[in-house]
Amino acid sequence: MDLKIHVSKKNFYWIKWSKIIFCSVLIGFVVGLVTLMFKNLVEEYEHILFSKAQSTKVMFFVLPLMGLGLIYCLRLFVFHNRKNKGISEVLEAVHFKKKLPAYKIPSHFFNGFLTVIFGGATGIEVSTVVATAAMGDLASKKEPIFKKYKKEFMGAAVATGISILFCSPLAGFFFSYENIKKQNSNVFWISHAIGVSIAVLLMFLFDVQPLFELHFLPKIWHLQVLPYFFIISLLAGIYGVYMTKIVLFSKQKFPFKNMPVLQFVTASILIGSILFVFPHLYGDGYHTLKSFTSPQTILTFSTGLLMVLVLIKPWITGITLAGGGDGGVFAPSIFGGACLGLMIGIIVKTYFYDDVVLINFVIMGIALTVSATLHAPFTAVFLTCGIFNNYSLILPLLIFVFVSFIVSKKIYPFTVYSISLQKQKR
Hints:
The protein is mainly α and about 425 residues long. It has helices spanning about 1-55, 60-75, 85-95, 105-115, 125-140, 150-165, 170-180, 185-205, 225-255, 260-275, 285-290, 305-320, 330-350, 360-375, 375-390, 395-410, 420-425.
């Protein structure tokens, strides 16, 4: 009798783990391929429409109106007037065991695509996170044995998607761990390891390139710059809170809440007005950051222009979201942090220490701001190293991301995403 029980237990565990591994592999491939197509489509069409707007300035007003208008029509006639709330939807599904409906997959992919290519100042990262988490949730419903591992499958799907977006499996893993749900189970480790491994395989097969390809690769940094890196970390911590507060304020106080058509029209006019003067802010803004990676163009940016971009970015992001756009503060943190870092770098190079590499300040600015805005220091480090494919600053990054994180959390303990979670707990 004992032998039969032992054999049946062995069979049960073998079947259980076989199904978990198979499901993790399936999630990894489906999420990875969908994210890869989504990323490439957004990059291609954003470039096409931005070029059109540059040649015909009036398009800076027309394109946001088209994008937000299409999103409104989709929500009204296809998605039954159900609004998207961003990563807070995933956090609520994880912490309060809520459902993440299947319609969130097409809803976030379509809305994220339309928001960014038509000039909305967000990014596709949040759309990817929610849509992939919904795919993980959907997979957990296919077998009764999977229901208790819903959080693990959701996290693995998110980790795979983020790995593809930023060419960094460690960024994907740590984003899931730090932002979705800190877990320490065997299913968590195995599902995530499979997911990010498949992401690496797909990046190799499809020759996925880093977001920013440096034309010059700084391999060293001088000890003399450490005090300036510390200053950036303090400023990034404050800026992370500024971005969070401004985005929340813009979404909460934007007028015409009961008149959605007037709301997205007003948002479109405001976005168009800002883009007309500062086209650098179009879409995710990565086209501007790519010019930071060239020694020929990096010095064409003045400290005054960079300061304005740093201050305005959270406002145009908040307006985009208030007008019905899809996204969050992921890409805006990267953009704002890069501008902040370059601004400090130019000041240091001009007045204090001429022998500095400006791109190092850009890299530090991105990581420190992402850490402050998302409260995710390890995600910030490996995300930044991944998008530049450069790990030469790994040591100062690992030190100073915690400074900006602590400063930000001391001033304001919530992120754009965790604040809604806190309100529900009350």
